Amino acid sequence: MTYEFLLCEIEENVAVVTINRPPVNPLNTVVFQELSTLFDVLDADDEVRAIILTGSGEKAFVAGADINEMASLDLVGVNKMNKVSRTVFSKIEQTTKPVIAALNGLALGGGLELALACDLRISSDRAKFAFPEVGLGIIPGGGGTQRLQKIVGQGIAKELLYFGDMFDANRALELRIVNKVVPAEEVLGAAKEWAKKLAQKPPVALQMVKTAVNVGGNTDLESGLIIESTCFGNAFSTQDRIEGLQAFVEKRKPVYTGR
Prior knowledge:
The chain is built from eleven helices and ten strands. The protein is an alpha/beta fold and 259 residues long. The strands form two sheets. Strands 1-2-3-5-7-10 form a six-stranded mixed β-sheet, with helices on both faces. The chain has a four-stranded mixed β-sheet with strand order 4-6-8-9.
């Protein structure tokens, strides 16, 4: 399948998805729809065990939503666009495979919201971040107010959301918004290194970890422990669990099949 604004390459069980609307890769309705379709395809593909999401060029990962499109919409239209964005960000967050954002440049507004929906984030040392929406008379509508505070806490989240100031990759690392900062030319390579390592791990176990963390993190401790126990049982019932334990005893590298 071909896409107007997305590129996708699959190699060694890793899919690299590139948002291709240079120079700054803004998000519009078509991009949202294409991301939704492509992530359905990748999630259903057993050959894909990890996904990297990045932007084309060196200037931006995603420099926000397409303001030209938003400015032309009335309340009904913008609510439809907002629903599409929230849906696809949640789909990315709930994808059964690990998703790594390779932040090759600006991640602003909706671009930062998109990054926060991914499991892991590797940033260029030249990347810049911000939630500038309040300065435009609006607020983040793709989950930014909710996902951000779960990472940095309410106080810092309000600071970043109220003022909308730009901050650099080192600040993003300090706030744990990103997991790692590397030189600009190494961003995609670093993401591929992580993705290839994840692709060698048992897929069901990774899926169960993701479910336990994502779902359990939105509930109370006792409910979270029940979710964890259920996920533990699901992972324990797999053939990969047998292979993993047997390989450990035999002192060899396990070969996981996703079964």
